[in-house]
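Morning F.,

Quick status update on the modeling queue. The single chain you submitted on Monday has been processed. Sequence for confirmation:
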Amino acid sequence: MQPVPEVGDLVRDTATGRVGFFVRSASGRFLIRSVHGGPDAEWEAEPRDVQLATPLRELRARAAELNARSRRGLN
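Structure tokens below.
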């Protein structure tokens, strides 16, 4: 059994290939928030399909989030 990610951890949903930030666990599922936002900014995933992102994937995702926030003026 994998450990439950901590709030804010970058995770990968292996069922969809999407990467996002872990929000919380509820009703046996994980809520994940997309790095890029958008209309489908949050989704639920089965815990068995979620793994912590690799350091390189995390670096790329955090850089993308900072760039997106900068474009929106949200330093």
